[in-house]
Amino acid sequence: MTMKSNTISVLSLKLHPSDSIPLYRQLYEQLRNIILEGQLPPGTKLPSTRALSDELSIARNTVLNAYDQLLAEGYLKGRVGSGTYVASELPDALLQVRANSNLPGILNRTPRTLSRQGDLVSRSSVSEPHDFAVPKAFRPGLMAMNVFPFKLWARLWGRQWRRRSLDLLGYGDPTGYKPLRLITAEYLNAARGIRCDADQIIIVAGSQQALSIATRVLLNEDDVVWMEDPGYPGAYAAFRGAGARVIPVQVDPQGLNIAHGVSLADNARLIYATPSHQYPLGVTMTLSRRLELLDWSRRSDAWILEDDYDSEFRYTGMPLAALKGLDTEGRVIYIGSFSKMLFPSLRLGYMVVPPDLVDTFAATRALIDRGSPSLDQAVLAEFISEGHFARYVRRARMLYAERQETLVEASAERLGGLLEVPSSDSGMHLVGWLPKGLDDLVAYKKAAQHNVEAPPLSIYYTKTPDRGGLLLGYTGVNTCEIRNGVNRLALALESP
């Protein structure tokens, strides 16, 4: 052999017969690792299968199986009459960066040149991933996962698989599974006052994808977009990523201030709004302001994106009709989300688009990912059609109302003078207002030190607001944890 006999020894290879992993697999993985780590450089000759089996006191077939796997994957090369050698070019060479490798690593490359859109997206913030398995006060956007009927959902899923419907296993219609579009149109007509049919519904992978599709269809680079200020960072990032000029427009107690928008830029191509429950302030746009917005968009040939992200969770009175329900000119593109109501990983939402734009939106949807998984859509369609969706929303609405009440009461008892937490008719979070002059970013950091997650309101603004605040999500934690969270938050805000 060209290598020393102790290159591969009992000391460097440790096999465990009692392990559930087969011996040949253990040997394969250990050999592969020492090859990748450079302990066996390219061109190194390996011991014969008989020699290695004797040294390790294992069956020769075990070594043969490990060698065969490494040969098949390109880590080893066999030479007739000569033996087995480490390959000169490894399959992982371009996939792994190793500190002791002579190969150039990605970290050593010169800066990459991105497209303008890529550069804009890289500098925009959408959202951070969270561990939803660990509910935490007062993280916004959490659902009451423990009350969702997962066993029922699993039965509906199993039913679809047992049917083995071939139309659910193909690519499917890019606009979405027809039964789901039909029942979504019925639901919107009844619950949101939107007059539409199934052909206007496009099923998407959540609201963020809906925003991406809309920007592709409706915006050119440097077009002007009115954006609520404060507003949803995901929308801001989508518009900026498309190269649009985003104009922050004030939100007052009546909702988006159209007069302020006109004074800043009277040539807006698109207006983004959350009229039913403004994000993050929770303001409901008044009827007069809605009519003013629709009238201005008609006269200015502008589009309106209505993001109706949590309108189902209204705790007093009947749900408000959507802005889209007042639209007689086909100016409003409506966005809704099933994921926000049920569970985040469902990744299903929908758009309602004007009839003359359906083909364009559908083609754009197909271009992105050809469509959402048909099986998921079929399960959701049955979940809605059998009445489970309505029952779950009613149950969640009652539970969330109770949790909001607990948060408001506990805050009044414990946070007096520290944080003002008014109630709201709807939504999944409240805004806690700090005394004027206090920095909400500092308050957020203090809260984090006491295991409380309450995002600062200022991060949703483009400029420093007149008064700081904290977002308090209450839907994902029980009443006991809400009270404990309020106590911890009080300790944080009381600290110097």
Describe it.
The protein is α/β, with parallel strands linked by helices and 496 residues long. The protein folds into 3 domains: 1-103, Arc Repressor Mutant, subunit A; 122-127 and 146-388, Type I PLP-dependent aspartate aminotransferase-like (Major domain) (Aspartate Aminotransferase, domain 2), CATH 3.40.640; 391-494, Aspartate Aminotransferase, domain 1. 38% of the residues lie in helices and 11% in strands. The chain is built from 15 helices and 12 strands. The protein starts with 22 loop residues before the first helix and ends with a helix.
Topology record:
Layout: H1 23-36, H2 49-56, H3 60-73, E1 76-79, E2 83-86, H4 116-122, H5 150-163, H6 178-191, E3 201-204, H7 207-218, E4 224-229, H8 233-241, E5 245-252, E6 255-256, H9 258-264, E7 270-273, H10 287-300, E8 303-307, E9 332-337, E10 349-352, H11 358-369, H12 374-385, H13 388-414, E11 429-433, H14 440-449, E12 469-473, H15 479-494
Parallel strand pairs: 4-5, 4-7, 7-8, 8-9
Antiparallel strand pairs: 1-2, 3-10, 5-6, 9-10, 11-12
Helix pairs in contact: 1-3, 2-3, 4-8, 5-12, 6-12, 7-8, 7-11, 13-15, 14-15
Short description:
The chain is of the alpha/beta class and 496 residues long.
Can you give keywords for this protein?
496 residues, alpha/beta, Arc Repressor Mutant, subunit A, Aspartate Aminotransferase, domain 2, Aspartate Aminotransferase, domain 1, 3 domains, eight-stranded mixed β-sheet, two-stranded antiparallel ribbon, 12 strands, globular, disordered N terminus
